[in-house]
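seq:
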Amino acid sequence: MRIYAIDLSRDINDEFFSNLKLFTGNERPVSKRITEIAIELFQNIRRYSSTLTNAKLEIVNDQSDYACRSVNTIASSAVTALTEIIRHINTLDRNELKSTHTKILACSLQTKNNNPGLGLYRIALRSHARLNASFTQLDADRFELSLHVNLAAPQ
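struct:
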């Protein structure tokens, strides 16, 4: 098993893309999907975290299988909404997922707001798999969110 851990103390830059290309080798379609998922996970971490302290973003390669994992601290007030969004995403088939993503995106463009959860829909679309989230309470105000996404074969 190989793991590519991304330093979240800095923004994702050209070094990230170069290192990711080396990590995935000649698997261009896989590299593209992983890059898109990693960027969405990074944006979710930046959006929901009050701090990047202890935040992690990893790409895991186990033989020919890939997965992305993110861990970050979120406010307890965000847990219910994130749980509901993830639960809803995991109930949708591929066509429903595309349709819902398009509707949310159109609404976001009309209102010029970045709709919460849009990135999670993108992650599900690009990974072709369920989102596996767990929430661990750290104290009354904070939870640790661990999000694990396997890359399934495109359907």
